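Appendix B. One record, verbatim.
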Amino acid sequence: MANQNRIPIPTLTRFANLYRVLQEAEAEGVEHLNSAQLEALTSISASQIRKDLSMLGEMGRPGVGYKVNLLKKRIGSILRVDRGHPYALVGAGQLGRAIANYPGFEDYGFKLKAIFDSDREKVGQIVQGIPIESNEHMPASLLQKSIRIAVLTVPRNAAQDATDQLVAGGVRWILNFAPTHLKVPDNCIVRDVFLTPEFAILGHFTED
């Protein structure tokens, strides 16, 4: 199989959707799913699913489909969600706390290990058993805890400074909810999650 790092982002996105569906199917006791059934569950075309899964070798059987637990395990290995990933949260506002309290990330191997905020009144508060730390301590704390993944939920004007501190603390992968593009070194990866433009797109389809 090709180097996992060379798998295109759209393919990884489809794998992530398939992994979610396979998790649910396994929990419900489903043993096999074919490409047509996976299409109905993911809205990914059956032909695209077969093309993507062909990267994994011979995983399916004609007339039977794919064995759910084996395919889930294989995709989990590709996505590397079959191992633990400690992550930090920067910004303990409403969105940040909602993310901290969401249990679904642990299903993908992501475990919250540190929370930071610049608001002195929030520092010391406990969220999900984790004390909020000051942004001033961010680089040292991240290095001490060996955290290399972070979720950023701070205002636009605070995002780049927080990012610089994350990078100084050894973080290399950032999920960015701040409505701005971040400048990072070449060895860092940022995934932007801009919510407001998504609402604007929905607005286009609404009727007067």
